Amino acid sequence: MELVAAAKLRRAQERIESMRPYADRMLELMGGVSRAATTVRSIPLLQRRESVKTVAVLAVTGDRGLAGAFNSQVLRRAFAVERDLRQDGLEVRWLATGKKGRSTLTFRRYDLAQAWTGFSDNPAYADAQAIAHTLAELYENGEVDRVVVVYNRFVSPLVQHVTVQDVLPVPEEVLRRGEEEEREEAALRGDFIYEPEPEQILARLVPVYLETELYRALLESAASEQGARMTAMRNASKNAGELIDRLTLEMHRARQAEITQEILEVVAGADALGQ
């Protein structure tokens, strides 16, 4: 399993490293277009609720175990987020990706709105689109007032950081992203002319932004899962080897003690016959 996870990790790591620049560029594009738009009132996913009552929490987990603390640390953080929200008097709606998240939430008798499974180790963009469509529909229909995603961000095969990210409504820091850099570029190249209007472009960009952020979270989680599984299986193999060595030594000691006892009994018997 360590070797299989190592092979899958290389592919997953290549995918997330290729995805990150695209996602960062999407955030910069969102920021530039939003600042050029005169109004965003017509875009539902940018509208902030005056009073937040219900928050959707999406826990991104794996379909399989044997990956160390990969699944448990995401769920622990998600439950901590839930406690904080309930202390503020907010309701929580649960969504999950991966069989581990679905089974844990079901076992704890949480009301699980929807779960997606079967793609945790190799997610496709279509999977992110399906999740994004559901989240956008919940937000536009007013069933939730905020959407939070909890997932493992891949740092290295040995390190995965649990990340809590607000995706809906689109955070203000996303809309202000790259503001200083854009001013410098505008001073050098002049103002941009948008065709069609910035509001129309932004209306098309926001759903793509949501899909991109969810796809990024799925890829980060996939790479983290393989890294955690590779590390866990390596530690398991090492521990099993040490256990085998210790038990083998104990077996040899017991065998030697038994042989020594038999020799002593034979010698004692010979001495008794000799007398």
Please describe what this structure looks like:
The protein is 62% helix and 15% strand. It is α/β, with parallel strands linked by helices. It has a single domain, classed as 3-Layer(aba) Sandwich (Pyruvate Kinase, Chain: A, domain 1), CATH 3.40.1380.10. It has a five-stranded mixed beta sheet, with helices on both faces. Strand 1 (54-60), helix 2 (70-87) and strand 2 form a beta-alpha-beta unit. It is elongated, with a radius of gyration of 28 Å. The N and C termini lie far apart (65 Å). The relative contact order is 0.18.
Précis, in short:
The chain has 275 residues and is α/β, with parallel strands linked by helices. Helix content is 62%, strand content 15%.
- Which regions are unreliable across 5 or more consecutive residues at pLDDT < 50? none
Our estimate of the beta-strand percent is 5-15%
CATH topology: Pyruvate Kinase, Chain: A, domain 1
Q: What about the largest sheet?
A: 5 strands, mixed
Query: What is the overall pLDDT average?
Result: 85
| Dominant shape | elongated
Number of strands: 5
Radius of gyration in whole Å, from Cα? 28 Å
Count of individual helical segments: 7
Helical fraction? 55-70%
* H and E string: HEHEHEHEEHHH
> CATH homologous superfamily?
ATP synthase, F1 complex, gamma subunit
> Could you give the distance between the termini?
65 Å
Overall structural domain count: 1
What is the CATH architecture descriptor?
A: 3-Layer(aba) Sandwich
Strand order of the largest sheet: 3-2-1-4-5
The CATH class name reads Alpha Beta
Supply the helix-strand structural class: alpha/beta
